[in-house]
Amino acid sequence: MKRFAPTFLLCAFLGAGVAHAADYKNALLLVRASKYSEALSEFKVLAAEGHAPSQFSIGLIYHLGRGVKADPESAYMWYKKAAVKEYPPAMNNIGMMYLNGEYVTSNHNVAFKLFLKASLNHAQAKDNLAQCYEFGWGTERNIVKAAELYEKAGDEGYILGWFHLAQMYEVGYDELPKDIDKAVEWYIKAAEGDLGQARTKLAELGRLPPELAQ
Fold it and tell me: Which residues of the chain have pLDDT under 50?
């Protein structure tokens, strides 16, 4: 079964807003330098002004335990502040918490609705939504739609989408027949995007191109 990972903090700069963009970028640079306490202070100043990306970023710091003890309750609280402003990364991560039953009670229906809304402007949410369609989590199973969304997620920069599409072709479904050659094509595309899992899978299949071997 595929699992979900929280949206990475450094991707959160997208949609920061002109008024706070410079300060937010500086805070992200602090994160990059592993100066989490300083970054958290910067984010909190912006978050107090209602800046959704900063609210999300605080949530992620608590979610991942970066420089602080991991605290899913605080993560949820900060994600929610950003999610009510319809900030896609926050809606996506709260969706994952509902899907996995992390801090909140597992609720696939709520998770699906959050992924559906976030997916309009968020590549990872498209991948998460695709998994819901593939496995019937919170919605009716729809293999064709899942495949379409995985491809779009990869096209928009979330490389795991291509990897998950390759897995679908490797496994095979009535609506998407097993096709190892197509699976290899998508694994190669994911490997070219520097996804180590895809290189490993190609090696297992004996189909790893020499130029992609490490």
Answer: 8-16
